[in-house]
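As a warm-up, study this chain.
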Amino acid sequence: MSLKTITPQELKELLAKGQPIRLIDVRTPAEYTEVHVQGARLVPLDKFDPQKVLAEYNGQSQEPIYVICRSGNRAKTACERLLNAGYANVFLVEGGTVACEQAGVPVVRGKRMVLSIERQTRIAIGTGVLAFTILGYLVHPAFLLGAAFFGAGLIFAGITDWCGMALLIARLPWNQCGGSCASAPASAASTTDSSAPASPSPATPLCSPQ
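Now compare it with the structure written out below.
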């Protein structure tokens, strides 16, 4: 079953109609709090259960579900889970939140800033390679195996498009938002396109991370 996509411009036009849509953001709570497309509801990928999501959306209704992340990789994984659960009307938002913001799609921006999971993962892997390389030269050559392990992990992630370290980093405390998946309060957030019709607020999130 092929994965359908929607461009940021098409999403912008859809939101401009003022009708509620099923838009799910699968990033971490911290990323979501920093900035998210207006009307998106948070279901972090590490807690993404397609059956629970479909139950929230009244089960078998085949209205479109649009899935978004930062740049598209995590959203693709979530879309595949929905497809495997038998829900065919799923759309991947091309380019993710980054592309949507660049295209002028209305977003809600909070005050909190956090590095993306992708950047945190690169920093962690780079630090690991550097540390094991230094230990290999200064302490014992066996430590070079640690650097090789990180390199092999990168190759595996590139081939499979799955990165276990990224999933672990997503669970770290600073990537959570104090136990609530609610969007940033209106008083602490701003919308980049005030002329766009206000889409329904994601008042009740689809998850409550522990």
